[in-house]
Amino acid sequence: MNTMRKVTITGAALAAALAFGGSGPATAQQDLTIMTSVPSLGFPFFVHMMKELEAEATVLGHIDTNQSDGQNSTPKQTADVETAIIQGVDGIVISPIEVDAMAPALQQAVDAGIPVVTIDRRVEGVPGILAHVGADNVKGGEAQGRFIMERFPDGATIVNLQGQPGASPAIDRNAGVHNVLDQHSVQYPFVAEQTAFFARDKGLSVTESILAGLDTPPDVIVAANDDMALGALEAVSALGLRDQITIIGFDALPEALASVRDGGLAGTVEQFPGGQSRKAMQVLVGHLREGVAPEQSVILLTPIVIDAGNIGEAERLGEIN
Fold first, then answer.
1. What are the phi and psi torsion angles at 174 (to 5°)?
2. In what order do the strands lie in the sheet with 131-135?
3. 6-41 pLDDT tens trace
4. pTM score, two decimals?
5. Is the pLDDT of residue 254 over 80?
6. Interatomic CA distance for residues 149 and 260, integer angstroms
7. Which tops the pLDDT comparison, 94 or 1?
8. Cα–Cα distance between 296 and 304 in angstroms, integer?
């Protein structure tokens, strides 16, 4: 069993962290086939991660990527991993849909001698995973909590839209928000908490249902991703409450950034998904070509809240019109 060492990387140190392996192809240029898998290419966040994985593979050179769309189905993602094992890929970079449910398939890969690097969502129960690269989602949730307290120093009522049950980002982001606000529960009560499954249509419908059941609108809606936040914004706007309810997302999607710029969402959390993806590919290829384990087996980037005042720090700012 490997000993997991953790390092946290701030946004300011991200460029230096990505210097692993240099700015060009690695010296040892043997051909590699690497499976890249994300939970669903129906989510823009994961489309971006997949593009960045492919881009870094191109930079490193002589790498074929076997891209897998989990289609938000654990059986589908499990079958894709099993197929990759049979095909004899050299390595796997994966963001698991459900960390516990994907553990057996990833253990099969490790047992078959295929190095695995997880991104975004960390699997705890598989000895031998080479590394995990992700955002510190607990700190991201804590950043949301502090943002609420800064915006509402005298207190606020809060609706919490939680993510996909069983997904580690959903668990950790929720924990982070509560870490901060539960210390001041009288001033910052949660008047409703419900999963909206990381989906925009659910964010819309769940928000409509919650607001219909409250006597007065909440001051804040905090969401575990931008899709839910944007769905909530649609619901709030339709009810004429846009100026009364502050909405905070997570992921810094281009559409969310545009909304922040234009006065819709109050903020969103930047977790540097492209940086995660590129670093994960670098770690895996460095191991495969140089035969050494990474210095740190848990590499976490520190998320920050993006609002109108610091929108220039967003990773995907260039993608908005």
1. -65, -40
2. 6-9, 298-301, 131-135, 116-119, 91-94, 32-38, 63-69
3. 555 555 445 444 443 433 333 447 899 999 999 999
4. 0.76
5. yes
6. 18
7. 94
8. 22
